[in-house]
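Hi support team,

I've been running sequence recovery on a batch of backbones for a student project. Most finish fine, but this one hangs at about 90% for roughly twenty minutes before it completes. I'm not sure whether the input is malformed or the queue is just slow. I've pasted the structure tokens below so you can try to reproduce it. Let me know if you need the job ID as well.

Thanks,
M.K.
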């Protein structure tokens, strides 16, 4: 039996179809009348008012009804982390989809900023403070014992201990992979040292422990390749969307599907369809660069 968010995504696809007919509208009305759905719809209407400027072009191109447009808002509120906005809009350093950038910071440290990422810096005589708002970055830190190099990312922070490391943010948390020496990671009330050849993840709950890591795979994006090994489809789509410039709506059931895959950054156009051919998920494209995934 399909989960509630899978059903809502299915309605999103059906209501955005240019062949929308009265029978479909009647079916939708019956779905809306079921217990709990009306309240979710009221939330969707509130969300729609905030989302409306970004969806004007979608509605114009597809001539969808207001009811269908509201379905877009409802899907965006469902569990599964549908992202429709970009944090770090006013960050000091930003990259667009498909763009990577190498930064030389004032202290001599170097940062490789991945596509769709945003980074801010605030250096003073006491500390080198950075914030990774969204996306992914690889840090090669210049030695300066008097000024700690601290990167805030998501629900935690990472302090360099004379090192090189990679941080990847997703909608669920952050992954830290160390390629040289070590870092000190903090989240919530916990902290842990992560050494070269190890990775650690954290989220709003806290740290989730260290484990061996393939540093070459974790930083393969710097060489134009994305490598995923036993990753969740949700994480994979977070990264693909950031690199390709898509906005992704994915159901919770689809988000949990495990994925092992390699993608060339220069050839991401059909990546969702390739995944759908080998995984128990369905993919639908909508105007405005929206990719919708739900479980089969």
């Amino acid at each position: 039996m399909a989960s509630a968010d899978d059903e809502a995504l299915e309605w999103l696809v059906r209501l955005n179809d240019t062949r929308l007919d009265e029978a479909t509208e009647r079916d939708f009305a019956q779905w809306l009348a079921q217990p709990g759905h009306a309240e979710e719809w009221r939330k969707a209407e509130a969300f729609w008012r905030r989302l409306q400027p970004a969806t004007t072009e979608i509605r114009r191109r597809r001539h969808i009804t207001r009811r269908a447009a509201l379905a877009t808002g409802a899907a965006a509120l469902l569990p599964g982390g549908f992202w429709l906005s970009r944090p770090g809009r006013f960050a000091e350093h930003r990259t667009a989809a498909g763009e990577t950038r190498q930064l030389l910071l004032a202290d001599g440290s170097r940062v490789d900023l991945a596509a769709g990422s945003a980074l801010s810096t605030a250096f003073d005589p006491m500390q080198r403070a950075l914030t990774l708002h969204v996306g992914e970055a690889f840090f090669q830190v210049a030695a300066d014992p008097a000024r700690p190099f601290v990167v805030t990312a998501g629900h935690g922070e990472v302090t360099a201990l004379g090192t090189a490391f990679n941080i990847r943010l997703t909608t669920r948390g952050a992954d830290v992979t160390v390629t040289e020496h070590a870092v000190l990671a903090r989240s919530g009330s916990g902290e842990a040292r992560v050494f070269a050849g190890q990775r650690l993840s954290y989220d709003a709950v806290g740290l989730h422990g260290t484990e061996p890591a393939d540093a070459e795979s974790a930083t393969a994006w710097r060489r134009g390749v994305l490598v995923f090994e036993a990753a969740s489809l949700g994480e994979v789509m977070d990264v693909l969307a950031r690199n390709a410039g898509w906005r992704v709506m994915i159901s919770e059931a689809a988000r949990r599907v495990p994925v092992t895959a390699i993608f060339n950054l220069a050839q991401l156009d059909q990546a969702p369809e390739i995944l759908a051919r080998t995984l128990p998920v369905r993919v639908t494209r909508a105007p405005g660069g929206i990719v919708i995934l739900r479980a089969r």
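--
Follow-up from support: It reproduced on our side and the slowdown came from queue contention, not your input. The radius of gyration is 21 Å. No action needed from you.
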